[in-house]
Please model this.
Amino acid sequence: MADESLGRAARFNQYIADAREELHNVVWPTREQAVNLTIAVLFVTVVMTVLLSGIDFVFSQMVKWVLAAVGG
Model:
């Protein structure tokens, strides 16, 4: 049982060491790139919100029309 817990601890420590090593290989964006990408994400989010809201409105009006037509 003790050997198994030592094995787990060693594997966990190796995992942490590997993760730290990988973080050194990451190419982080510059501040300008991060700002530009954030603006792009916000823009796409707003456009999709408007688009999906419009589609939702159209479908809800269609459902109301169908229900009114069948006497619901």
